[in-house]
Structure formats: structure tokens, C-alpha cells
Amino acid sequence: MDRISHLTRNTKETQISIDIDLDGIGNSEIDTGFKFIDHMLTILAKHSMMDLKVKARGDLTHHIIEDIAIALGKCIHDALGEKIGINRYGFSIIPMDESLARCAIDFSDRKALVIDLELNDCSIEDIAVEDLYHFFNSFSENAKMNLHLHVLYGDDNHHKAEAAFKALAQSIKKAKQVVSEDLPSTKGVL
Ligand SMILES: [Mn+2]
To answer: Which of 80, 112, 117, 189 could form a disulfide with 146 if both were Cys (CB 3.0 to 4.6 A apart)?
Structure first.
């Protein structure tokens, strides 16, 4: 069965359209109006081997980034379906030059977020650091996943964020992989 999902989300604040194929080859078409988010979502697709199309417009930066994260999280949750046979867990430690990020995830159907990206400026490129934190909060909530994401060290904020997205991508790549015919839960439901 194809693990694909599409979501169009139109509110008075934003217009978001997302197409995802969990079993893709890392292709992406990303147009959010924010170059740094485009860069990060392109990285997310490439290093998780998901095909991803995102088109987003809206009124305020905070609204647009939040609603992209909501829609993207929902799409991943939807595309995972019953989660039969998936690894469920994924983890990675990824360098980006002098920065190092560590990520561990569980597609548990429950949201938990523990995050510290060690970002010490108010902004990275064309977005606010708080919008980036808000992205991971809304994403983990709507994907219904445990997300533990930490930058262990680094100097450059762009590198730190990029390492974090690459670590998340590598973790998703492992967690979504189908490795058996059984549901990976002693409870019998995910
Ligand atoms: Mn970069």
C-alpha cells in the first residue's frame, strides 16, 4: 500500500498545501516564502528519503511556520497509517561542520517534546529562533511522536539548525522503515 498523504489547510491566516510520499527518494518542491524554511524542509525530504511538496502562504511568519508544521505532522501521521511493521524508533547523531545534533524519535501516537538547539541569537537568516522551536512543537504534536532533539555543541546558528533537521530526517528515515509484518507494540495498538 502506498504510504502517501495530501493535505490542504486553508484558514483566514494561512493557505497550506502538502503532498508526501514516505517511500520516496528525497525529491522535494518547497515554496514557503521563507528561504531558511525552504532550505530546512528540502534537507528534511532529502535525508529522510521522503518525497515532499509544500506550498505555503499567509499573513504572519509565526502563523505560516506553525501551520506548515501542523500540516506536515498530520501528513506524516496519516501516511504512516496503521504503522504495521515499522521500526517505530529512529535515532541519529549528525554533524554539520563544527555543530553536532542528536535526535531520537518514537512514532508512538503520543506527543512528547524535549528540545534544546543551543541557539543564541534571536534569528537565523529570515526567521525567528522562537518560530523554529514552535515548528518542532507543532510538528511533534500533530505527528503524534516523541521527539528528543538536542544540539550538543556548535558555533554557527545556521549549522546548528541544519544539523538538527538532518538528525530529525535520519531518525524519520529509520523509524518509518518497514521491517516486519507485526505492529511494534506489546500493547497491540499504536
Ligand atoms: Mn545550510
So the answer is: 112
Cα of 61 to ligand 1 centre, how many Å? Answer: 20
Ion ligand 1 — residues with CB < 5 Å:
162
Cα of 161 to ligand 1 centre, how many Å?
Answer: 9
The DSSP call for residue 156 is -
Distance CA(136)–CA(35), nearest Å, equals 18
CA dihedral 136, 95, 21, 58 (to 10 degrees): 40
Q: What is the per-residue pLDDT across 28-76, written as a single tens digit (0 to 9) for each?
A: 999 999 999 999 999 999 999 999 999 999 999 999 999 999 999 999 9
- Cα of 121 to ligand 1 centre, how many Å? 17
**180 within a domain of the structure (yes/no):** no
pTM of the model: 0.97
The residues, any chain, with a CB within 8 Å of residue 188's CB and separated by 6 or more, are none
Q: Which domain holds residue 61?
A: 4-175
Percentage of residues in the chain having pLDDT higher than 90: 94
For residue 102, the domain's CATH number is: 3.30.230.40
Q: Is 55 inside a domain boundary?
A: yes
Q: 18 CA distance to ligand 1 centroid (A)?
A: 23
Greatest pairwise CA separation for the chain in angstroms: 46
pLDDT tens for 106-146 read 999 999 999 999 998 899 999 999 999 999 999 999 999 99
